[in-house]
């Protein structure tokens, strides 16, 4: 009797072990997902994420492109997977990718080279190089999250991405195998992951000079020690659609996948900077306006805006008594012996006024001043020259230690302002897994 009970117990135990992996994958629906981000600070200033793709899973480093259209990876160099499937022309996947391209390949069939496949245009937004690639599906594994910690890994069995030839990796950080697009298309990571797990089309990024994080899905999001960000702790501004694609190659009529916001006025130490305000709006040709970018390491300003902003910065009372030193490329305005504050070096505050006087994105010393060495800090804005496509590109350094939440359904951006003001940083996500 005891013996048969014991056998029964073993059978149940075995059943449990065999069933539980698939069971847990199918029944566990994550609330959110988390992707750790590291900065390749020494050389490229690119932000890298590690994803796990294919069967068997292969860890891949990909560069985070906030406005990128989709995930693209090098398929030319050792793509081995039993679950790779090219997307056919005119398939449902192909229309999700907004493509009507149909591709053939005159070589032996392999990932990235099949006939009758949906053609897309993977874009290296750092070198501004685009090429044609095959749209495909494969397994993607990613860590779930409750917004505060990572949890168990979950799998998307048919995650859409584009194959690219090896040459497209040129200009990316060493060891990178592609780019992860977080833009506003249906096949960029945020929308594809939201639809795979039926959570809100929202995601947050929190970059840092060391370890940061992207959280897919809605908040609240927590950082150590016990700092919680929810809709009450963020300031919101509408996300604007640029009607003309800003990708390196595109077909006519395609809107931009990048995230634009409406800066109306710039103030420095509470004084309005006089600018040609028509540069601040996006015209019918998609020129002008302000976008947020993770592939530009520093904020880039159109020449006349750059001149007005830097003139105002240098003349502001808070900058008059600090000691200027020689410029350090790509920066022009460098200082020594700056006093430190909780919000970074004591320099004039740069304020971007958005839809009204009450919605302000403040740039304090921690985001405006770039440390060159122990003594010298430079204003981390660069001159984009005349005839820029986008007048203001808010770059990675200016985003660090600010939490940004993109709400695709409501087309709005929530921003936290510098986290130092709340005694935390973007590297304070608690990466201890609860799984
Ligand atoms: C595609 O079709 C062409 C013409 O039929 C053939 O020469 C080529 O080998 C095929 N390519 C692949 C990858 O199957
Ligand atoms: C302001 O910018 C617009 C758009 O670039 C340009 O057409 C116009 O000539 C500029 N106005 C002045 C006064 O510079
Ligand atoms: C920085 O400040 C210290 C103390 O006030 C002074 O001795 C030093 O000369 C200053 N350095 C420069 C480069 O101005
Ligand atoms: C991080 O999360 C783990 C798991 O929930 C928890 O045990 C740990 O106390 C947290 N760390 C801190 C410093 O709060």
TrEMBL record:
Q: Enumerate the spans annotated as Peptidase A1 domain.
A: 47-416
Keywords linked to the UniProt accession: Secreted, Signal
Which GO terms of the molecular function aspect are on file? aspartic-type endopeptidase activity
Q: Where in the cell is it found?
A: Secreted, Extracellular space
| BP terms from Gene Ontology | proteolysis
| Nucleotide-binding in keyword set | no
> What Gene3D superfamilies does the database record attribute to this sequence?
Acid Proteases (2.40.70.10)
Give the range the annotation lists for the signal sequence: 1-24
Gene Ontology cellular-component annotations = extracellular region
Top-level taxon in the UniProt lineage: Eukaryota
Recorded hits in InterPro entries, A to Z, give:
Aspartic_peptidase_A1, PEPTIDASE_A1, Peptidase_aspartic_dom_sf, TAXi_C, TAXi_N, Xylanase_inhibitor_I-like
Family recorded in the similarity comment: Belongs to the peptidase A1 family.
Protein name, entry field = Peptidase A1 domain-containing protein
**Organism of this sequence:** Medicago truncatula
